Amino acid sequence: MADFEQLVASRKAWIAEFLQPWCRSATLIALKQAEQEWLDIAGKVAPEKTLWPWAWSRFPELVHETLGIEETTQVEVNLNDGRMVRGYPDSRASLQGQLVLWGNESPSLEPRELGPFSIEQIASIRRIALT
C-alpha cells in the first residue's frame, strides 16, 4: 500500500499526464459528457476552472495560464470552413466549448458579438499584434 504522499503524487501525475492532455484533444461531445461527471473525474474542482481552460489550451494564444481565456488581446480565429474572424474574446460569454468574440466584420461596422464558434469549428487562433 502506498503512503499518502505517493497517493497525492500519483493523482497529480495522472492529472498532468493524462487528464489535461485529454482535455486539449477531446471532442466537444466528450467534453460536455466529462463536465457532467467532473467532480468524480477531477475531484472537487469546478469544470469552468479546469476542464474548459484545459480544453481551450489546445489554442495556446487564446488562453492565459492562470486566468483562462485571455480577453485583452485581439485574436484572429481561422475556422475549418475557411472563414476568418477577428475580435476580442469574451470569456464570460464563451461557455461549454463555444467561443464568443467582440469585434466587427468590417472596419466600417460597429463592434458586436461574433459567434459563438464551437471549439470543433476552429482550425487555429493567433494573437494580433497592435501596430
Provide an overview of this structure.
The protein has 2 domains: 1-58, no CATH class; 62-131, SH3 type barrels, CATH 2.30.30. 32% of the residues lie in helices and 26% in strands. The protein has helices at 4-25, 28-36, 38-42, 51-56, and strands at 63-64, 68-69, 75-79, 84-89, 98-103, 112-118, 122-127.
Write the layout of secondary structure elements.
Blueprint: H1 4-25, H2 28-36, H3 38-42, H4 51-56, E1 63-64, E2 68-69, E3 75-79, E4 84-89, E5 98-103, E6 112-118, E7 122-127
Antiparallel strand pairs: 1-2, 3-4, 3-7, 4-5, 5-6
Give the low-confidence spans. none
Q: Under the CATH scheme, which class of the largest domain?
A: Mainly Beta
Radius of gyration: 17 Å
Overall pLDDT: 92
Q: What proportion strand?
A: 25-35%
Give the strand order, joined by hyphens, for the main sheet. 6-5-4-3-7
Level-2 CATH architecture of the largest domain: Roll
Briefly note the structural class of the backbone: alpha+beta
Output the helix-strand order: HHHHEEEEEEE
Q: What share of the residues lie within helices?
A: 25-40%
Number of domains: 2
Separate helix tally: 4
CATH level-3 fold name of the largest domain: SH3 type barrels
Largest sheet: 5 strands, antiparallel
Q: What coarse outline follows from CA principal-axis ratios?
A: elongated
Count of beta strands: 7
Terminal CA distance reads 60 Å
